[in-house]
Amino acid sequence: MRPFPPCRFLALVTALFAPLLALPATAAWELDPERSRVAATVVQIAPTGPIAHQHEVRRLAGTAEADGTLRLPLRLAQSDVVERMGPLPPWLSGLTEHPLATVTTRFPPQRLEALAVGESLVEVLELSVQSGGTTHREPLAVRFTREAPGRVRVSNAERVALDGRELMANPTLRSVLLLLGYEQIGDEVPVLLDAVLLRR
C-alpha cells in the first residue's frame, strides 16, 4: 500500500467524531477520553537496527454545528510527545496549544441512525485538512459499531500508514522527531484509530 501524506494523520482523528454528525440535534454525544485515541508506530532507523516506538494522540474534542459540519482543531499538547520530551525548548513550548491543523468533515445522518446494537457500517468520509495556509482533501474509510444504545465505537476500516519521508520533510514535525532522537525513520508509519462515543 502506498503511504499517504502526513496531513491524513491529522485527518484520521476527525473520523472519531463523525457519529456526532449523524444524530438528531437533540442528542448529545461525547468522546470518552479514557478510551479514545489514535496510535502511530514510528520505526527509528538506528545504528543498531530498526527500533519501533509507539506514540498517541489523545484528549480529542470537537463540536458539530447545526448544519452537520464538524471542525476539529489539533494541537501538539494532545500527543504523548510532550510528556516524553519533558521540558520543551522555548520556541516549541509556545506551539503546544496552538492548532497545528483544523480538520473538517460531514457525515450522512441516515446511515448511523439505521444501525442497531451490534451492527457496524463502513463509511468513506471526505476529510478537509487546513494547515499552514493550505488545504488538503482526502477520503478515509472508517468503521462505526453501535455497541449499546448510547455507545458507538469508531475504528479504521482498512490499514492506514503515513509517509515517513513526508513527515521528516515537515519542519515542525522533523524538529519534534529530532528532539525525540529520531534522526531517521522508516518509510511507513502505521496508524490505528480506536475511540468510543457516549450519549450524554
From TrEMBL:
Signal peptide per UniProt: 1-27
The organism's place on the tree of life at top rank: Bacteria
Keywords linked to the UniProt accession: Signal
Protein name: YceI-like domain-containing protein
Organism (species): Halomonas ventosae
